[in-house]
Specification:
Order of helices and strands: HEEEEHHHHHHHEEHHHEEEHHHEE
Structural class: alpha+beta
CATH architecture: 3-Layer(aba) Sandwich
Number of helices: 14
CATH class: Alpha Beta
Strand content: 15-25%
Radius of gyration: 19 Å
CATH topology: Beta-lactamase
Largest sheet: 8 strands, antiparallel
Mean pLDDT: 96
Number of strands: 11
Shape: globular
Helix content: 40-55%
Length: about 325
């Protein structure tokens, strides 16, 4: 992804054990304003990166822009869960089931696959009740329910909604391309963990999308209204975007609505900073998610988007403790 110079310029996240730095992760990152001017860079910000689940707020906005919110009466919690990588807690499941009911679809229509809830308590409750998880417990089930709603709006085939050629997926890709002043036809397209087409763009272009999510500037009025609905839903209901104790939920809570955060697989992270008017995207070059929290908090502090007091409240993400099997602290992860 990067040449040697870009790797040296990347943000460094160290992992200590005792007094020794045992491992190092490098993070490429970029922050831009709504006009695309770079405010912060680390590493190669023009290399292509699959956004993975970091693109979910943009996908949710495409669904809202198409009219799904109005047609199906989606409330802000449901819009937030469409933008989520949720933990499978009961309220997440209920929100996804509500979307499916409103669009007249069954859980069996979800093609995201099945895994137990990420939230340990929710997973344990299912085990104790002898209930097997279903696709609705998948962290991406809200997004999939939203895409099914988009299919209904467009008259597209709900059975093939995972296909890159499905009109719903084409609609989403074109919407995302507009937000980043990009050309969807030039994007590498891969398959995400949940099966949907996932696009790759540069960190600078992706940061522009998040800057527009933050500011609502530089886009058409319909696109701005859709972005505003998603941004405000996420900020108002951060627990629906990830879950109890998770980094995105905690960043949004601590920032009290001024930041919207969305993590993605392989160490990607996106932030829309409403008050400061910028978008931020980062990528841990080796995909190690443990470097995401320290690098994001450090960058947000450098950009003035987190106060010292707020950063203290995020300390367990900014400087996580490394524990051994017996639960004793043996090191730290830090910038």
């Amino acid at each position: 992804m990067t040449d040697p110079q870009d790797a040296r310029d990347a943000l460094t996240v160290s992992v200590s054990r005792g007094d020794l730095v045992e491992s190092v992760h490098r993070v490429a990152a970029c922050a831009v304003d709504a006009g695309g001017d770079v405010l912060y860079r680390a590493g190669d910000v023009e290399a292509l990166v699959y956004l993975r689940s970091t693109a979910k707020p943009l996908i949710a906005a495409a669904i809202v822009e198409a009219g799904a919110g109005e047609r199906f009466g989606l409330d802000p919690r449901e819009i937030a869960v469409i933008a989520a990588s949720h933990s499978g807690e009961p309220y997440h499941v209920l929100a996804v089931l509500s979307i499916l009911e409103k669009i007249g679809m069954e859980v069996s229509a979800l093609q995201c696959g099945v895994h137990p809830p990420y939230d340990e308590r929710a997973a344990e409750e299912l085990r104790r009740a002898g209930i097997e998880p279903t696709a609705v417990h998948n962290n991406c089930s809200g997004k999939h329910a939203g895409i099914l709603a988009l299919c209904k709006i467009l008259g597209a085939d709900t059975a093939t909604y995972l296909s890159a050629e499905n009109p719903a997926q084409r609609y989403i890709l074109e919407f995302c391309a507009r937000l980043s002043d990009d050309d969807a036809s030039s994007w590498p397209i891969g398959g995400d963990g949940c099966g949907i087409p996932v696009y790759a763009t540069s960190l600078s272009k992706a940061a522009l999308s998040f800057a527009r999510l933050a500011t609502l500037e530089g886009v058409s009025e319909p696109d701005a209204r859709a972005l505003e609905a998603v941004r405000d839903a996420m900020a108002a209901h951060p627990e629906y975007v990830s879950g109890t104790g998770q980094i995105d939920t905690e960043i949004m809570r601590v920032a009290q609505g001024t930041l919207v955060a969305k993590a993605g697989a392989e160490g990607v992270h996106g932030i829309a900073a409403r008050d400061q008017g910028f978008g931020y995207i980062s990528k841990v070059l080796d995909g190690g998610a443990r470097a995401r929290g320290p690098s994001t908090v450090a960058a947000l502090r450098a950009l003035g988007a987190l106060t010292d007091e707020q950063a203290v409240k995020l300390a367990r993400f900014a400087r996580p403790t490394v524990y051994n099997r017996a639960g004793r602290a043996v090191g730290e992860i830090f910038v």
